[in-house]
Amino acid sequence: MKGTVAALLRKELALELRTRESVPAMVMFAVTTYVIFHFSLGDIGGARAVLDGDLAAGVLWVTLLFASILGINRLFVADHEQGGFDGFLLAPVDRTSLLVAKAISLLAFLCLVELIAVPAFGLLLLGPSLWQALPELLLVLLAADIGIAVIGTLVAALAIQTRARDLMVPLLALPMLVPVVLGASRATAPLFAQGGAAALPGDWLSLLALYDLLFGLIAYAVFDFLLED
Amino acid sequence: MSTTEPAVQLRGAGRRYGERAALRDVTLDLAAGQTLVVFGPNGAGKTTLLRMLATLLRPHAGEVRVLGHKLPDDGYAVRGRIGFLGHDALLYRELTGRENLRFHARLHRADPARVDEVLEVVGMRSRAEDPVAELSRGMVQRLAVARAVLHGPELLLLDEPFANLDPAAIAQVEPLIGRASGCTRVLTSHDPAGGLPGADVALGLKGGRVALLAPAAEVRAEQIAELYA
Is the ipTM of this complex over 0.85? Predict the structure, then answer.
């Protein structure tokens, strides 16, 4: 299975490098949203409006969630339109390798997006310094990204079989991702506290990890059936 | 598979798309090394038959055995032994010909050296570094032939394999997918003059039903023409 996942990942990376369809669109969406927030919040008492705590965490995660929907929507498009599904199904390989490869590639895309979007958020909107709790923030980002990648891959594989793919992805993914955004926001909020980052709430991080594990198992169990005729 | 067992065995095989029966009650045997040519107007069920034999579609009625294995239960056992050439090339347009073939070679665990070998035979080595999107339809079809035989399949399922190919290209791909390949072949055609001479058995489909099944040497062009009337 490792060899198949590596082959699929290499193909995913090559396709994204050639087409630049997913990551640039996700980055543009996230950064533009932060810019819109920056200007629409305006000045408060003559000073630039800045966010902290719960509100900052909410704005960060809701924006990242909507940006990820763009990537989820594109995840299987090339395979569906160019016969990649059939090519894969004709090979004597474990079909779960496609789930693993797609989830890893979506995870990598999310990490790339956050590499630009999170500093932009820090610069444009965040009051406290982003650096004050960076290691903990990276941990939350990783836990949430894994959840988004697994659920996103599952939803994308389901939606690609339907005619209304663009509609199905947000309709299916957003409710399933509510616990991820909730857990990530609650875990992030203390890190963005004014006057210094508080400790990372372990219970919310545990919830995220548990949700990741749960959906990892569900995806592993049902993915084969999604590819079946 | 025992030496006496047919390479392809259908017993009352059928397939529906929703309520519409695309293929009904097809019964035939094809011995190893033989060629079956399938004729029939558009919508007769030719492509459905091929996709069913390729494990891409589940049979909804009857029994289908390929290379001694019952489908769909033993699909995994036959996938790597089938070479499928359908209407779609199953190649990613943004990747080069070589990248596409390498990808399929990895999925099928085929010798990487085989990529250059088949590119040479189909006369595409000089254009192997060009993205598939920049190639003519004939060139894409030659690459699709190379993709289908990359892993040295025993059974070739060929849906109008010579479409888009000029006479020189047909001669080039002949050793790979023609009678000289030594493979068991199931191919579809609309041309009795081109399809019958290289075949052992002829099957005529009309409205998803068997309208003609006879040794190819005994079939006259007028019988094929009647299928299209």
Answer: yes
